[in-house]
Amino acid sequence: MVVCGDDGLAHRLAAELRVVYGEQVTLVVPPNSRIAGPPVVGRARAASAALLDRVVSAAVGRANGNGNGGTGQVTGEGPRGERVLEAVEATEAVLAEAGVERAAALALVYDDDETNIRAALTARRLNPRLRLVLRLYNRRLGQHIEELLDQAAVLAVGDADGGAGDTSTTVLSDADTAAPALAATALAGTGKVIQTDGLVLRAVDLPPGALAGPDADQGLCTLALFSANSNGPEPAEGTGEQGPRLLPDDAEVRAAGERGVMVLEQVSSSSSAAAAQDRRRVGIGFVPLLVSLFSRRLRWSLAGVVGCVVALAVALSVVTGIHPVRAFYYTLLDLFAIDDPAIGQSLGRQILQLLSGLMGLLLLPVLLAAVLEALGTFRTASALRKPPRGLSGHVVLLGLGKIGTRVLTRLRELHVPVVCVESDPEARGLAVARRLRVPVVLGDVTQEGVLEAAKIHRAQALLAVTSADTTNLEAVLYARAVRPDLKAVLRLYDDDFATAVYRTLRAAHPRAVTRSRSVSYLAAPSFAGAMLGRQILGAIPVERKVLLVAAVDVGGHPQLEGRTVDGAFRAGAWRVLALEGRPVAGDYQLRAGDRVVVAVTRRGLAELSGRRVPPAHPPDSLG
């Protein structure tokens, strides 16, 4: 396996392939990635520090030599036994030196889409049989590139021996993989939803003791047990705390006690879910239009004027005894100053006519304000909105890069009010925020007053997803100083750092909820599964662990074939959730032609893939 990249995802993916699946891995990284980049993985920092001297020496040697412009240089082994090749970019010479011509799979996970596409085209020419996995942010471009590379492989291999073999191309996005999990983590009571072709899976978190009663709703199955204190990442070894347990058996669930649980609540077809969503949208088109055009204060003013007009019409009908419809008509005539004085009529009628005229005078400025505000709304449609007065119960989203943009889109799909904070006026997510009419505060979150402008004191959660761990931490600390009970979700790469942060925040704010997520940790299993020819449908975070949802063909898997759904379940490894896009009964016997959707741990996926898992590390831990 060959992995090429320039950020934490490359290191995480190489560790995933080496530790979990026992693959031989060549890691291609830029010369300075181990100096300026994030730490490799958790407790591997000590081993990578020993490698640092060799990296610096090699870099100095290249500076005095050819500069490493077109080829790479092996710097030795990485902390987990992977072969490390340093190169500025993945040129043809570098890919050849990395062994792409003999490799089974190549992952191109550079942060830049163009770099990945250029390297993929070169690699396909060097080895038409190579299984390619690309990281692309642009979804539409990714579909076209996937079709192009697959077609090129079929033509090249077909011309040679008449068959393309397993030369698939898979395009993935770490942002698309991680965004649903990050959005769900920030919202209380929101299930983690995984949508596949024809299937929607929904997993929800239940509080401690939720399964204790005899009438408790246990969902379709239990996916995980959280830590005894499930307000953060997995406890470190030697602390005496129980870490999370993935795919527990019935005995473990019954003995869960006060541990929180995650259950599979629903399995339904995507067509029925889409139809239900369409039904919810029927008849509400006018309300969003009214909200987008007029401010809340002006809407209340219009409602007050309408209420006064109705009250005057009712009073006129009572005083004069005329029909209510005619009374409403007369009120409108008086309101719009149409000349019909009530001379010779009763005193009550004359008073009501005067009041109607007065209401007409009051209505004119309200109508003028509505026109001006509507025109201003259209005129400022291209400008960023400011947080409105009185906003509360919203999510403050820090960072509008690739990850933040996808998280913003997901939150708006859930109809969650959001206020974004971004320091870069040229950030890619600003255009999305403008299109979705989401308020944005431009400024450095470390500066005083920025979070206050985002109404952090009235928010339900803070979601810090910038690429800098320290910035995310500083934002959470400042927000907790303003509001100690605020729910905080921060993006942290390093496991050890996340554990230290969690424990400190838990000690300082025991009643507040703190969650940490690593984008590379959520995305790496999907990329690794694609390199092994597996279709990973989604990832469900369980504290600092991850539970995968994958599509598996029963044929060729003795762990599944010929067994019932209940009999195929293996605690801590895998559980069958659905069959070919529909729920499946526990007594159904799996056959060779079936294709099932399974919840599976990373070690369980390695076993289903026929890999011999190295025993050197604890299950489902990169540390």
Tell me about this structure.
Mean pLDDT is 78; it is low at 34-69, 231-240 and 270-286. With 623 residues, this protein is of the alpha/beta class. The longest helix is centred in the middle third of the chain and has 33 residues, at 347-379. It contains 21 helices and 23 strands. The two termini are 21 Å apart. It is elongated, with a radius of gyration of 30 Å.
Query: So what's the overall shape?
Result: elongated
Total helical segments: 21
Unreliable segments (pLDDT under 50, ≥5 consecutive)?
A: 34-69, 231-240, 270-286
The beta-strand count equals 23
- Alpha-beta content class: alpha/beta
Spatial strand arrangement across the major sheet: 3-4-2-1-5-6-7
Fraction in helix: 40-55%
How can the largest sheet be summarized? 7 strands, mixed
Distance between the termini: 21 Å
Arithmetic mean pLDDT? 78
Question: What proportion strand?
Answer: 15-25%
User: Roughly how many Å is the radius of gyration?
Assistant: 30 Å
